[in-house]
Write a structure and sequence with these properties.
Layout (H helix, E strand, L loop, with lengths): L20 H10 L14 E2 L11 H8 L9 H14 L3 E5 L2 H12 L5 E4 L4 H9 L3 E4 L20 H11 L7 E4 L12 H13 L4 E4 L3 H11 L8 H10 L3 E5 L10 E5 L2 H14 L10 H13 L3 H20 L12 E5 H4 L9 H13 L1 E2 L1 E3 L6 E2 L6 E2 L5 E5 L7 H16 L7 E5 L10 E4 L1
Parallel strand pairs: 1-10, 3-4, 5-6, 6-7
Antiparallel strand pairs: 2-8, 7-8, 9-14, 11-14, 12-13, 15-16
Helix pairs in contact: 1-14, 2-11, 3-11, 4-5, 8-9, 12-15, 14-15
Length: about 450
Amino acid sequence: MKTIIEPFKIKSVEPIKFTTGEERESILKNAGYNPFLIRAEDVLIDLLTDSGTSAMSAKQWSGIMDGDESYAGARSFYRFEKAVKNLTGFKHIIPTHQGRAAEKILFTIVGGGGKFIPNNTHFDTTRANVEFSGAIAIDLPCKIGRDPDTIADFKGNMDIDALEEFIKTQGAENIPLIMITVTNNSNGGQPVSMENIRKTKDVAKKYNIPLFIDACRFAENAYFIKKREKGYANISVQEIAQEMFALADGCTMSAKKDALVNMGGFLALNDDDLAMKARNILVVTEGFPTYGGLAGRDLEAIAQGLEEVVDEHYLTYRIRSVEYLGEKLTKHGVPILQPPGGHAIYLNAKKFAPQISLEQYPGQSIVCELYICGGIRSVEIGSVMFGKYDNQTGKLISPNMELVRLAIPRRVYTQSHIDYVIEVVTEVYQKRNNLKGYRITFEAPMLRHFTARFEPL
């Protein structure tokens, strides 16, 4: 098999600033040992997130120049609406400035005290918006998805039996909707099978509960279905995505992922009453229903991006790039969540630095060392991001897995950049016995990982 090359040519470049290890130690200390607080210009390879970090195509940039900036009824909105409807089939398309704004609108309406929102696994802003409404976010990942070492095709699946048992226990009247995240970001970017989405829909329909999809990485998920699920090999990624959405009653999406843009999102649904309530909140918080906090040029870029992202040459390159990183790290003995997911490689922090207790945040230690060693910015997904304190004892309650995510921006880095990442991660792993823990010196009451400050122990 020949080398899978980037399905594009580079037309514009941005310089990278080089720093020394000594300089990075000082930069990290001044940032409170939190990579979120480091200036982007001081980062060599930025793997903090794949959200809003894509390189846009020439056609997207030309669409930006052609954007209609009319306040109401802009031409660009109707192109955007047509693209989203063609993909999802939903009746009401409501633009927002990003995915979390769509979540905020949705859960403001359906959430509240005494309500529960089950999900295969909530990511950080989804959980925060559920809990901010007063509802409780419930994660129900499949059993095999909780094991970072087992290799399986669809570890992002919902635990169907646990979902039905939860509904029976809490009462369907207390569950305004069920959500399924594709791909499952918190669980290693693992895909969800069509069969699992269908079974989730069957349970939802049985109890008359709407099913919503968190669609940030719908194209990557559809590609995995094409490659791994029986009966889909000869079906296009776009058709698979359309089948996924047809099983749901609505979706939220951060277009900053699989729409290949730097800003934007939407809420899409079929329910007329829910759509009316959502637009009322949209007008108060985001903007008029035909722009929703976005410029016309952003709507143009999203519409074009949704067409480009289902191109199977692009997706082959995208998934293979992440797989390549995972294979090379595994070859060097670095423990990762297996198998590689769609948008990121997740280092298994428990095995990477077993000498550091969970209370001393092993993932954060790895994140800091990756920056000092090679200027790589990554993110902890473990006890910092999802840890909570027991109300009675004050002790840390850790999530099931302690991970460090290396999220790969779309169409940004070449293989030589990824080879450099492999070298740095391997070097840090070889010196893993020297890693030490951290303690939090400041934290916000919600989404603490964005602004927390640390000090080494």
